[in-house]
Design brief:
InterPro entries: Flavdoxin-like (IPR001094), Flavodoxin/NO_synth (IPR008254), Flavoprotein-like_sf (IPR029039). By secondary structure, the chain is an alpha/beta fold. 25% of the residues lie in helices and 25% in strands. It is built from three helices and six strands. The protein binds flavin mononucleotide. Flavin mononucleotide binds next to helix 1 and strand 4.
Length: 137
């Protein structure tokens, strides 16, 4: 059977976003998709326009900064030479992990969601914001 592909890319400093990404991959497998899951910086960004569906899971570190393993990927998305339709074939979802006690709450996921839209990609769901302060953690 030709299973639909699902790419899950994470940016994680201390492992939580990676765990969430791996959980999404397991769920995808259960739904008979063909998931691949890796850190954003381990993915060849030049292939992004060939991906039908990508779920991004991005944590926040420092004072609203990107985790170490998504910095290169994020920088490459900011290139001024990218045309506004660079990712027009991409459908995506972004889920952020943060803590609302910080002033720059969930900044990397907010910026990533906005930049993907700027590059012509389509969001299948609104930005999801995970909060350490939530009563369920
Ligand atoms: C040193 C440190 C700095 C953090 N800074 C922020 C921040 O500026 N904004 C925010 O929303 N969350 C912040 N957080 C919360 C983390 O994003 C949150 O705990 C997340 O689940 C961590 O995911 P990770 O384990 O994949 O790195 C910070 C956490 C730590 C430990």
């Amino acid at each position: 059977m030709n299973r639909p592909s699902l790419l899950i890319l994470y940016g994680s400093e201390t492992g939580c976003a990676q765990e969430v990404a791996e959980r999404i991959a397991r769920e995808g497998r259960r739904l008979l998709l063909k998931p691949r899951c890796m850190a954003m910086d381990d993915y060849d960004r030049s292939r992004l326009d060939q991906e039908p569906l990508v779920v991004f899971v991005a944590a926040t570190t420092g004072q609203g900064q990107e985790p170490g393993n998504m910095k290169k990927f994020w920088k490459s998305l900011l290139r001024k030479s990218l045309p506004p339709n660079a990712l027009s074939t991409l459908t995506f979802a972004v889920f952020g992990l943060g803590d609302s006690s910080y002033p720059k709450y969930n900044f990397p996921s907010k910026k990533l969601h906005k930049r993907l839209l700027q590059l012509g990609a389509s969001a299948i769901v609104p930005l999801g914001e995970g909060d350490d302060q939530h009563y369920l953690g």
